[in-house]
């Protein structure tokens, strides 16, 4: 039996460490949003208009949500009519998603799996929609393999939709000082651990009502991220044969407040301070698996 290459061993170890970091933080995140099930059960949606526009019609669409976390967005897409499957590496996140499905009365399938393994084992052309969003790309060490898996899983005419934090925003520290180079090349970045960004958002990510929950959470498990620019994301999708239909940049953030002095805006959005020029803080794209001409 062929032994894994050393770099493969390293990536397995990184994924398992990231799994441990996410498992450690889920309880803290969930402690701030006890009303999520009731919010969804009453018809609330956690999706923002930006991703809903890019996703398009969802009624009766087989949909895959990659890196789905605790499943609120997956269940929101199910509420809009999709036959939704959510996949995440975290055991704790998937268990929370399954509980949320039961408590909200919304049906979706949730799978605990590494995204690369899941896509590699998936039957071809199964989904009409594949969605990934808000802090997902940074967990991928290999965009080429990821994009190829997405393209294989999409049916002809299907869409891949990504909503992400803009790489340009990662060049600034929390006080808006230019502090880092533009993210590129999949450069590794090690952090102390996945933080309690739900608590820090102070209600921005708790649409059913915010609870102080766990205070001063410190993750005992470090995590490993990878830095990618927009050009690299788009090139990987194009290299997999997907056709880019839409690429949009937004000078605000949905839900979260990653910087100081941000100004609230309608729709649970946050703008840069008035004394700073507008810079792109999020981007969204939609790429399509096109029908091939006859005979090709």
Major beta sheet, strand line-up: 3-2-1-4-5-12-8
Structural class: alpha/beta
Distance between the termini: 38 Å
Query: What Rg, in angstroms, do the CA atoms define?
Result: 19 Å
CATH class: Alpha Beta
As residue ranges, the low-confidence spans are: none
What's the architecture in CATH terms?
3-Layer(aba) Sandwich
Q: Strand percentage, roughly?
A: 15-25%
Element pattern in H and E: HHHEHEHEHEHEEHEHEEEEE
Largest sheet: 7 strands, mixed
Helix percentage: 25-40%
What is the helix tally? 9
Approximate shape: globular
Structural summary, described in words:
The N and C termini lie far apart (38 Å). With 296 residues, the chain is an alpha/beta fold. The model has no long low-confidence stretch (mean pLDDT 95). It has one domain (36-191, 219-288): Vaccinia Virus protein VP39 (Rossmann fold, 3-Layer(aba) Sandwich), CATH 3.40.50. 31% of the residues lie in helices and 23% in strands. The strands form three sheets. A seven-stranded mixed sheet has the order 3-2-1-4-5-12-8, sandwiched between helices. It is globular. It contains nine helices and twelve strands.
């Amino acid at each position: 039996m062929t032994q894994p290459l050393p770099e493969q061993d390293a990536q397995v170890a990184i994924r398992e460490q990231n799994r441990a970091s996410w498992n450690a933080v889920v309880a803290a995140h969930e402690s701030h949003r006890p009303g999520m099930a009731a919010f969804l059960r009453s018809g609330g949606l956690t999706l923002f208009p930006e991703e809903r526009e890019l996703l398009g019609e969802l009624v009766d669409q087989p949909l895959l949500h990659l890196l789905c976390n605790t499943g609120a967005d997956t269940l929101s897409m199910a509420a809009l009519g999709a036959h939704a499957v959510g996949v995440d590496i975290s055991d704790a996140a998937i268990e929370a998603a399954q509980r949320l499905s039961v408590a909200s009365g919304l049906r979706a399938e949730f799978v605990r799996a590494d995204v690369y393994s899941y896509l590699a084992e998936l039957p071809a052309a199964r989904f009409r929609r594949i969605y990934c969003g808000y802090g997902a790309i940074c967990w991928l060490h290999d965009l080429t393999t990821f994009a190829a898996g997405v393209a294989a899983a999409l049916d002809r005419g299907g869409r891949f939709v990504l909503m992400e934090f803009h790489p340009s925003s990662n060049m600034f520290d929390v006080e808006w000082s230019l502090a880092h180079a533009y993210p590129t090349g999949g450069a590794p970045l090690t952090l102390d651990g996945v933080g309690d960004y739900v608590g820090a958002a102070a209600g921005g990510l708790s649409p059913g009502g915010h609870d102080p929950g766990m205070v001063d959470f410190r993750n005992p498990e470090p995590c490993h991220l990878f830095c990618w620019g927009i050009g690299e994301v788009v090139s990987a999708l194009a290299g997999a044969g997907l056709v880019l239909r839409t690429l949009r940049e937004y000078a605000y953030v949905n839900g979260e407040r990653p910087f100081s002095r941000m100004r609230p805006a309608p729709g649970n959005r946050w703008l840069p301070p008035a004394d700073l020029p507008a810079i792109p803080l999020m981007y969204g794209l939609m790429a399509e698996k096109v029908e091939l001409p006859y005979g090709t």
